[in-house]
Each structure stands twice: as C-alpha cells, then as structure tokens.
C-alpha cells in the first residue's frame, strides 16, 4: 500500500512516466504503508543499474517541485546507493512503477 491520496498518486505516476519510464520505481519509508503523516516525504528509489545522468535527475527533481504537491519528494538513484542503504530501502519498499515489459 502506498500512503497517498489518489490525486497525488496520479500526479506522481505521470511525472515518473514522463521522466524515467524505463525504470522500476519503489516507494520506501513512511509512505510505503500506512505510517505516513500529512507532512511525510515521499521517498522514491529509481532502480537503475548505472547512475542516471545528473541533468536527468535534476529534471526529475524539478518536475516534482513544479507539481505543487503538499509534501516533499526525495529521489535516490539505486546505482548510487550503498549496501546498507539498499537494505533499509528493501525493508519497506513497495513498487510504484513496475519495470516495463520488453
């Protein structure tokens, strides 16, 4: 379960589909379940094999900022994370955007 109102979930999915359509995206942390508060961040992990180009990550961040969501969106690039952080992500991870079919 992803703790977001349907209108915000739709916006988030649209931004992801427009910016990183080829990657699976996970929600983790407080909003990956029913523990989220109104002000809780939306934590997203983009499941990359190689780090995304900085410009592409900046474009994604700008799209979330421009979306006028009532919460902050934090994105991490899976390829840029270490084993400890990956373990923490996996504890609560819920698929938001599945891996596209080939």
Give a summary of the structure in a few sentences.
With 102 residues, this protein is an alpha+beta fold. The protein contains three helices and four strands, in the order αββαβαβ.
Topology diagram in text:
Blueprint: H1 6-19, E1 25-28, E2 42-46, H2 54-66, E3 73-77, H3 83-92, E4 94-97
Parallel strand pairs: 2-3
Antiparallel strand pairs: 1-2, 1-4
General description of the model:
Helices cover 36% and strands 18% of the residues. The chain has 102 residues and is of the alpha+beta class. Strand 2, helix 2 and strand 3 (73-77) form a beta-alpha-beta unit. Helix 1 packs antiparallel against helix 2. The chain starts with 5 loop residues before the first helix and ends in a 5-residue tail after the last strand.
The unreliable regions are none
Secondary-structure class: alpha+beta
Number of helices: 3
H-E string: HEEHEHE
Largest sheet: 4 strands, mixed
Mean pLDDT: 93
Q: What is the tally of beta strands?
A: 4
Any idea what the CATH superfamily is called?
A: Beta Polymerase, domain 2
> What does the overall shape look like?
globular
State the strand order across the main sheet. Answer: 3-2-1-4
CATH class identity: Alpha Beta
**Could you tell me the radius of gyration in angstroms?**
13 Å
């Amino acid at each position: 379960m992803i703790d977001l109102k349907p209108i915000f979930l739709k916006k988030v999915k649209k931004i992801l589909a427009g910016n990183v359509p080829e990657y699976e995206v996970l929600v983790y942390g407080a909003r990956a379940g029913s523990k989220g508060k109104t002000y809780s961040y939306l934590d997203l992990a983009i499941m990359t094999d190689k780090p995304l180009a900085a410009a592409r990550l900046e474009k994604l961040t700008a799209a979330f900022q421009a979306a006028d969501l009532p919460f902050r969106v934090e994105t991490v690039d899976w390829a840029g994370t270490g084993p400890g952080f990956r373990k923490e992500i996996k504890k609560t991870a819920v698929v938001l955007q599945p891996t596209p079919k080939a």
